[in-house]
Amino acid sequence: MLLFRLYIAYYLRSGKEAVLSVSSIYPRKTMTNRTRLQSMAKPHKYDQKAEKTKDGELVSSYMCSPESAAEEFEISKRLYYQLTGRSQPKERDVLMYRIIQSFKPGEVTPEQANEIAFELAMQFTGGRHQFVVATHTDRAHIHSHIEINSTMDYSDKSTFSTASGRDYQYVVLQVTLKEKFIGTGSGNLTELEKCINDQARKGHRLHTITPANGGSKGLMGGDRIQATMVLGKII
């Protein structure tokens, strides 16, 4: 397995003293007998264990929520495929990059370690990829787990060149669909229609719409479903 080990010096904001961290990085792929989503969800769940992260106080994230990071990573990958048509064979498809950054005992506080790991992830991704930082204090040396989505985030406006040479500007919207009460209408179609019509008035047309389980239950047990709509405008 590909593995890099980095030795990086950081200057704490509270002073001029430099601290040395050891960071290792390697790619995560789809696990045997697991789906892509399951393969991403398992490490996220381990990284964010309450007993390792002061009940979640030492978990931070960028462009995603820690609790639903795996699902949001998956949505980004689906959007990428919808917009570009590109994909990798399963055996070569890197889902995430994991970085572990470690410090000598007593060198930094847990909060400082989390901040430094966050800065490292921002430098590594250039602010273009989702990531989650979980700092662990269950060992003598404080260390942070960084899980980075290998796919760029397309939940905002992005521009791509097509084979025809034209540029399309895409707007990505997510609408949460749920059953409000048992035996009553949910108003889902009305909500979808409103979103599509609002974008039509701005000159966008519906490109694709993909439903995905929102991962939580609505009132009285109704499933919450996220409809991800990609709307395009020729510019």
Largest sheet: 6 strands, antiparallel
Radius of gyration: 21 Å
What is the fold-level CATH name, i.e. the topology of the largest domain? BirA Bifunctional Protein, domain 2
First-last Cα distance: 43 Å
The CATH C-level name of the largest domain is Alpha Beta
DSSP helical segment count: 4
Major sheet strand order: 1-2-4-6-5-3
Percent strand: 35-45%
Mean pLDDT: 75
Weakly predicted, low-confidence segments: 1-9, 11-16, 156-168, 180-185, 214-219
The SSE order reads EEHEHEHEEEEHEE
Q: Could you give the count of β-strands? A: 10
The appropriate CATH architecture of the largest domain is: 2-Layer Sandwich
Tally of structural domains: 2
Taken from the alpha-carbon principal axes, the silhouette is elongated
- Helical amount: 10-25%
Which secondary-structure class do the elements indicate?
alpha+beta
How would you describe this structure in keywords?
alpha+beta; 4-stranded antiparallel sheet; 235 residues; 4 helices; disordered N terminus; 2 domains; BirA Bifunctional Protein, domain 2; 6-stranded antiparallel sheet; elongated; 10 strands
Briefly characterize the structure:
This protein is 25% helix and 39% strand.
Can you offer a commentary on this structure?
The longest helix has 16 residues. This protein is elongated. A hairpin with a 6-residue loop joins strand 1 and strand 2. With 235 residues, the chain is of the alpha+beta class. The protein has a six-stranded antiparallel beta sheet, sandwiched between helices. The protein has a four-stranded antiparallel beta sheet with strand order 7-8-10-9. The chain starts with a strand and ends with a strand. The protein is built from four helices and ten strands. Helix content is 25%, strand content 39%. The chain folds into two domains: 148 residues, BirA Bifunctional Protein, domain 2 (2-Layer Sandwich), CATH 3.30.930; 77 residues.
